[in-house]
Amino acid sequence: MEFNTAIKPFLMEHLLVEGGFDRVFYFDPDILLLNRLDLLLEHFDEGASLLLTPHLHRPAEGDSDPNDITIMRAGVYNLGFLGASRSAETLDVIRWWMRRLHRTCINAQEQGIFVDQKFMDLAPCFAPNTHIIHNRGMNLAYWNLAQVTFRQEKTTWTAGGDPLVFFHFSGFDPRHPNCLSKHCRHFRTDIAPALRNLLDQYSELLFAAGYGKIPAALYAYGSFRSGTRIPEHVRRMFREFTPDWPSDPFETYEAYLHQPSPKGSLDRENLIFTNFQHYLWNFFDNQRLNLDPERADHLTSLTHWYVKNARSEQSLDHRLIEPVACRFGQVSPPRPVSISHKSAGRPDVSVVGYLQTTSGVGTVARHTLQSLSHSGLAVEGVDVAFGVVSDRSDISCVHLLNSRVRGRIQLYANINADQLPAVLKHLQSVTDPGYRISMPAWELEEFPAEWLAAFDGVDEIWAQTRWIQRMLAGRLDKPVVYMPVALTLDLPVAQPRVRYNLPEETFLFYFSFDFLSFIERKNPEGIVAAFRQMRQRHGSSRRAALVIKTMNGNFAKDREAAFLELIGDDPDIILINGVLSRADTLSLMTCCDCVVSLHRCEGLGLVVAEAMALGLPVIATDYAATTDLVSPATGYPVGYRLVPVKKGEYPFGEGQKWADPDIGHAAWLMRHVMNHPEEAQQKAIAAQQFIQTNYNAQTVLKRQMQRFAELTKKA
Question: What global pTM score does this model have?
Answer without folding.
Answer: 0.83
